[in-house]
Amino acid sequence: MEVFRDLKDEAEIAAALEEGRRLFAGECEFIFGAQKLGQLPPQTLPEIAFAGRSNVGKSSLVNALTGRRTLARASSEPGRTRQLNFFNLANRLMLVDMPGYGYARVARSVKEDWQDMMFDYLRGRPVLRRVVVLLDARIELKAHDKEVMELLDRAAVSFQVVLTKCDDVAPTKLARKQAEVEAEIRTHPAAYPHLSLTSSQTGLGIEALRADLAEFAQPRAV
């Protein structure tokens, strides 16, 4: 199946956008928070996981995608989320909010536990279709970001990089950031080749990202 960003025909593009809109307009509810691998819910739906540094805007992006304000709670305290949060979207797709990484005040043991648990989850979850890796457009690419991409390469899990908070960056600076991240993406075999530019505040890129992710959902019931 072609992904949205590779479509050329206007009718196909319109259909993909509408499919994404309909999916993410469906009922979405929090079903479980897992702090250990043994607590993971049954693998009943395709899963899309969201990963990123603490305060990169993961919760805001999930809320923007689903058109809700408080589905995933954003925190002003970096490193607060310490579990995998599962959200059932229209009984067709599972959205997984992963704990933030790279927060300096989190103890080394916690960071190591995060990496071990995340790698085990990524490697051992057959229903996981893609990981969305969020990067803050206002901040330089960090070593932790590259390490997570390498982790996904080793786990052989397809990932898609999304720039957040693009509304808060001047056009010339955003263009430089885009070029930098695209160059990094090309070095990772598990990376989806297209970079997404988004803003949860203005809605930039949200429709297109919905269409991208809708490709992995179970078909609508007839």
UniProtKB/TrEMBL annotation:
InterPro entries: G_ENGB_dom, GTP-bd, GTP-bd_ribosome_bio_YsxC, P-loop_NTPase. GO terms for molecular function: GTP binding; metal ion binding. Keywords: Cell cycle, Cell division, GTP-binding, Magnesium, Metal-binding, Nucleotide-binding, Septation. GO terms for cellular component: cytosol. Its cofactor is Mg(2+). One of its GO terms (biological process) is division septum assembly. Residues 44-219 form the EngB-type G domain. Transmembrane segments: none annotated. Belongs to the TRAFAC class TrmE-Era-EngA-EngB-Septin-like GTPase superfamily. EngB GTPase family. Necessary for normal cell division and for the maintenance of normal septation. This is Probable GTP-binding protein EngB. It comes from Acetobacter vaccinii. The lineage of its organism: Bacteria, Pseudomonadati, Pseudomonadota, Alphaproteobacteria, Acetobacterales.
